[in-house]
Write a structure and sequence with these properties.
It is a single chain. The chain is an alpha/beta fold. The chain has helices at residues 12-17, 22-32, 57-81, 96-108, 123-129, 131-143, 152-159, 203-211, 228-240, 254-261, 280-287, 300-303, 321-333, 335-352, 355-370, and strands spanning 2-8, 38-44, 86-91, 113-118, 146-149, 168-170, 190-194, 219-223, 246-250, 266-269, 291-295, 314-316. The chain has two domains: 2-174 and 355-370, Rossmann fold, CATH 3.40.50; 190-352, Rossmann fold (3-Layer(aba) Sandwich).
């Protein structure tokens, strides 16, 4: 039995926050990955100082360094008493590159193979912009034996770099997919936004699209929470347009959000969030046979394109309220076609993103790395 040390956010704080993204992926992976050949041991990499998005750069660096000191000590301690064949760490990039570099160097000294699992979609932008961020990212990546990424654009850019070409592997997210597809026809008049209420997730463009919509039978349901400033701004807009069918549901734990999604027809996520990568909410909607309206950001075009190159969802331009409105109206006016897209979306996620397929892919990569 080979041993894998997973360094990712897996602790009690992630559970309490019902976190999405890296945390939810890591918790599910540790719980559900079963193998006759590989045993997973995890170290919780959740920052001790919580979400640093509102911090100044200096404060982010100082708190990040303290987190790194604690985490590095944990890794050295566990490696003193146990032998691991693979170190597999998740990363969200940015200031985390220093952490990733240090962890790799510690494990390499013990002869451990290292995997950098990039869980964010901003790598192409970092490479194109150059400067210190590009230098630190590439320096860190060169230390690793494997680099796992989520989308084809990142794969293309990193494979164009000779020193990284042979290390890059596309490993998408996975999801548990219902065995049966509900083919009941939809009218596409219930639209949901599910996610953090961050302006760059496109929430204000989506609200603007509904304000301009003439159809009175369409309702937007907003599921999620945000900063007080953002929530206040949304409330002010909705107070001004009380005649529009827009309802605030608020934040829901992930299981409840998925249950709520079952009653919807459309998931609208017009995101231009800089670090957007592979939104789990889109996979969840596809697995339930819902129509997805989203943008060309990161892995989303891959997700909403079938194996034959045809679409299984609708893509719109970023920051474009008119395009969002037109996409929703198109679904209502062309319900038969939109229902066909829903069925294609279900088949796509079933055939390419189901948990068992992705976990088999990961096990294959583990074995190949050690062979």
């Amino acid at each position: 039995m080979k041993r894998v040390l997973l360094i990712a956010p897996t602790g009690e704080v992630v559970h309490k926050q019902n976190s999405s993204g890296i945390g939810s992926w890591a918790i599910k992976f540790v719980k559900n990955f079963k193998s006759d050949h590989f045993e997973i041991t995890s170290i919780d990499a959740m920052p001790r100082f919580g979400n640093k998005m509102g911090y100044s750069n200096l404060r982010r660096i100082l708190t990040g360094l303290w987190d790194l000191i604690i985490l590095a000590h944990q890794v050295r301690t566990i490696l003193k008493g146990q032998r691991f064949d693979i170190m597999h760490t998740t990363t969200s990039g940015s200031f985390g590159s220093l952490r990733d570099y240090v962890l790799c160097r510690i494990c390499k000294r013990k002869g451990t193979k290292c995997i950098l699992h990039c869980r964010y979609g901003a790598i192409p932008t970092i490479i194109e912009c150059g400067g210190f961020n590009k230098w630190s990212l590439l320096l860190t990546m060169k230390q690793y034996d494997n680099i796992w990424i989520l989308d084809r654009k990142t794969e293309e850019i990193l494979k164009s770099i000779p020193s990284l070409n042979q290390k890059i592997y596309l490993i998408p997210n996975g999801i548990d997919v219902p065995r049966e597809y509900d083919n009941s026809p939809k009218k596409f008049n219930n639209v949901a936004f599910i996610g953090n209420l961050i302006p760059t997730k496109g929430i204000f463009e989506l609200i603007e699209a509904f304000i301009s919509m003439q159809n009175k039978d369409v309702t937007l349901f907003i599921v999620g929470g945000g900063s007080p400033k953002t929530e206040r701004r949304i409330a002010e807009i909705l107070d001004q347009y009380k005649d529009k069918n827009i309802q605030i549901i608020g934040p829901l734990p992930n299981p409840m959000a998925v249950e709520f999604l079952k009653s919807m027809d459309i998931l609208a996520l017009p995101t231009y969030f800089p670090s957007e990568a592979f939104p789990i909410s889109i996979l969840e909607a596809m697995s339930l046979g819902k129509l997805v309206i989203s943008t060309y950001r990161a892995a989303i075009p891959d997700m909403l394109t079938d194996a034959d190159g045809s679409k299984c969802g609708l893509l719109v331009g970023e920051k474009n309220a008119s395009a969002i409105r037109e996409a929703i109206e198109f679904c209502i006016e062309n319900a038969a076609y939109a229902n066909m897209l829903c069925e294609k979306a279900y088949r796509k996620v079933r055939n390419f993103y189901s948990t068992e397929i992705i976990y088999n892919m990961i096990e294959t990569r583990y074995a190949s790395l050690l062979s």
